[in-house]
Structures are given as structure tokens and as C-alpha cells.
Amino acid sequence: MNRRRPYEDDGDFYGERNKKRRRVSENQEMEERLETLILRVGENSTSSLESNLEGLVSVLESDLGNFRAKILRILSECPIKMPEKCTIYSTMVGLMNAKNYNFGGEFVEYMVKTFKDSLKQCQWDAARYALRFLADLVNCHVISTASLLQLLDSMVDAANEDNVPQVRRDWYVFAVLSTLPWVGRELYEKKESALENLLVRIEVFLNKRTKKHHNALRVWSVDAPHPQEEYLDCLWAQIRKLRQDNWAEKHIPRPYLAFDSVLCEALQHNIPAIHPPPHQDSFEYPMPWVVYRMFDYTDCPPGPILPGAHSIERFLIEEHLHSIIETHRWERKDCAIHLLYLSYKDKIPLEYCIVEVIFAELFHMPTPRYLEICYGSILIELCKQQPSKMPQVLAQATEILFMRIDSMNTSCFDRFVNWFSYHLSNFQFRWSWDDWDSCLLLENEHPRPKFIQEVLLKCLRFSYHDRFKEMMPEAYAKLIPKPPAPQYKYTMEGAGKWPLRLVLLIYELSLF
């Protein structure tokens, strides 16, 4: 009797299985290759961005038949997870739409679904980046201007709902205003009246909203030298300034302009009607904040000029830096490198912008987004990565904070103490204390000498008392903490009042 299995006679079973394995392996390798190409587009390369985009679009078009779903998913996730490359991916989608109209329609549907899902799941940053990407697709002739305006109008309608929290209404207006820098010029040229009507509705909303939270979120109790503006008021002033400049900004890279002759001939798609999901009690919305300002152009050395507080470029720079910190906060070295190598670093005094944004995060009220030590470690790494500039800028910022400490919020005062003591401990406690001698003429409870006293008390945990006695100038002797010493309560004054039995027990224990 033949005991061999039938499929072993001709080897078809193993042959087919090996073919399937090879096929799956090849598909996975191809998918990974496509994902890597899409993710890294726009990064350092020997060839130009335009040629890279053309080559990548050709590769994606040839692979649409086998990897359509994969390409749709990656292209929709990239502008949300890497918002700084929004215009690069919109150019890619525009070029693919010009070659394949059906793919463009599928992508718009996929992106709209992503936007809706983000709203339903309270992923507010993802929803705002998705809205921005949809708006930028108008510049690439993928989406019609009329349908985008319809979407923006529905967002403003959601902001005018009754019986909903103000934070919900504020977010919808903020999402619309933060999108306009990308698409404002296109809307101004093609739908000027509709754009003006949208802005009028937003202005009416802003004039009616209450700002009771403003004083509670301020870092300083006074507005000199920099006013502390509520975030929506500041963004609205920046948008108005942009409108005065005919919606022309200087910091958003727009690679699709190089392909205008190709993109302008493409057929456009309409965004379907989108109704924001109704408010539910379980929804949590972003809280308001006050825009933090520390520097203006007079504080910076000769060179690139710091954009004004109400220029849209200031908003774009700060938003980009906040996004980098959010993305790379877990690894301080990567975070420092990405901060220092910003794409338009040659157009601005980058070090000043970085320091201002990090202190804005640290002093964010009522609590910082992340642990205080996160910002301290990033600043230390920035000083190591760029020792020629960053330490000087940070010292200048510390001096500004110390001079304005009289009006600083108490919570921010404590955070300033914690950061400065931690920073000193990583740089051998070196500081030009003689520059602050004037504070010694003030009472000890005044914020300035109190700050120095608290810093030294914190530093004592990182070092030892004799070191501070040697390091600090003699004039600061009264602010140096007392030397730590053990306190044995049974030998202290009044120890005789303890019961005799307890004293005898202590004596017996001391014999062992």
C-alpha cells in the first residue's frame, strides 16, 4: 500500500505555497518601498524637488492598479502627520489628478472621510490639518473654490450654534482662520465677494464672544512692553493684515507653482456637503490660550528681521515650531535638530523664534502641555547643537524674564525657578550674578531676590552647600540657603517634655 500523500507525487502543493509566499513578500517589499518614497519626498536630495515629484508621480501612477488603497491611505495620512509638507503632497495629488481624474475623485472622497472621522473622534489637530490640505488642493486645481467656500461656511455655521460650549465655537472659527493663509489668495482672485462675506461673519462672531478666560491665562499682569493677546484676537489681526497685503505671504513653500501649466488644465472635483457632527457632552475641545511674546525686532542683532506680532509669517513660524515640539518631544536630539534646521531659517532670526516658542510652551496656562523637564532638556540640547548662538539668546531671554519678574504669574514664577536651576546644574552653575546686584537693595520678599533665593535652594539639590559659598559673590551671602544639617528632635530644646518611658527606650536603643 502506497502511504505517500497524493500532493507529494508532483510537488504542486509546495510549489504553489512557495509561489504565494514569494508573491506576498514581493508585495510587502513594494508597499514598503512606495511608503518610503512618499514619506521622504521633499527631504535632502541631489536633484530638485520638482524632478523628484515628477518621478514619484510616475511611479505611483504605474502602481495604482496593484496598490491603489495603500497609496490613498498614505497620501491622506502624510499631510496630517507631517503638516509642514502639506504643499508638497497637495502638488503630488494635483499631478496625479491631472493624469488620472478618477483617482483624484477617489482621493477627495477619502480625504473628506478622514476629515469627518477626525471631527467625530475629537482629533482636533488632525481635523484642522485635513481641512488645510483640502484647501491647498484648491491651489492645485483638484477641488473647486465654490465647494471649499461652502465647507468653510458650514464651519462658521457650526460656530454660531446655540447652547454649545464656547470652546467648540472658537475651535471652528480658529480652524477656518488658520486655513486662510494657504488658500486666501486663490479665493481672493476667484471668489472675492464670497470671501469677504465669510470674513464679515467671522468678525461678527468675534465681536460677540466673551473673553472672561483672558486674565486667568496671562503670564504677565501688565501689557508692557508686549500686549498679551487672546489667541483668536491675535490670529484675526494677522488675517486682517494679510488681507491688507492682498493675501500675499512669504513663508509657505508652493511647489505647485512650477507645474501651473499642467495643473490648470485638470478637471476639478466638488467637496460633498459636510455637516459637522453635533455637540455631545463627552466631547473635549482645545482650551483657549494667550499668545506669548518675548522678543521684537529691536531685541535681535543685525540680520534677518523678526516678523511683526501681527504678521501672518509670525503665526506660520510659531505653528511650525509648536508642531515640531509636539512630534519630536520624546527625543530631545531629534527635536533640537529639526528646530534648528527649519526650512526658512535664513529668512528669520531662528534662535529667537525657537526660544520664544519654548518659553511659550513652558509658561502655558494653566499647565504646560508636557513635563517641564522636557523643555529644559530641549533647551540644553539646543545649546549643545549650536553653541555659537543659542546660549547667548537664552541668556538674553533669561535677563528679560528676570527684569519682568515683578509682574509674572505665580505659577510661571515657579516654573521659571525650576527651569533656571535645572539649566544651571547642567552648565556648572555658571552665571553672571554681578549683573543682578541691584536686586540686593530690595527686600528679601521682593520677586527678584526671592527668585535668586529659590533658584539657589533648588540648585542645592544638585550640588553641595560649600560650592555655592565659593561660587556666589560675597554680596549674595544673605540669599544663600543655610547649610543642611540633621535634626534629631530628641536632642532639641524641649525634648525633656517627652515621657520618661520614651526617653528610657531611646537610651536603651542607643546602647546597641
From TrEMBL:
Q: Name one Pfam family in it.
A: MIF4G_like
Q: Which domain of life is it from?
A: Eukaryota
Query: What InterPro entries does this protein map onto?
Result: ARM-type_fold, CBP80, MIF4G-like_typ-1, MIF4G-like_typ-3
Q: Which UniProt keywords apply?
A: mRNA capping, mRNA processing, mRNA splicing, Nucleus, RNA-mediated gene silencing
Which cellular components does GO assign to this protein?
nuclear cap binding complex; nucleus
- What GO terms are given for molecular function? mRNA binding; RNA cap binding
Free-text function comment from the UniProt entry: Component of the cap-binding complex (CBC), which binds cotranscriptionally to the 5'-cap of pre-mRNAs and is involved in various processes such as pre-mRNA splicing and RNA-mediated gene silencing (RNAi). The CBC complex is involved in miRNA-mediated RNA interference and is required for primary microRNAs (miRNAs) processing. Also involved in innate immunity via the short interfering RNAs (siRNAs) processing machinery by restricting the viral RNA production.
Name a biological process GO annotation: RNA splicing
Signal peptide interval: none
Which cellular compartments is it found in?
Nucleus
- The family this protein is said to belong to: Belongs to the NCBP1 family.
Q: How does it assemble?
A: Component of the nuclear cap-binding complex (CBC), a heterodimer composed of Cbp80 and Cbp20 that interacts with m7GpppG-capped RNA.
Tell me the protein's name. Answer: Nuclear cap-binding protein subunit 1
Per the UniProt record, the source organism is Anopheles albimanus
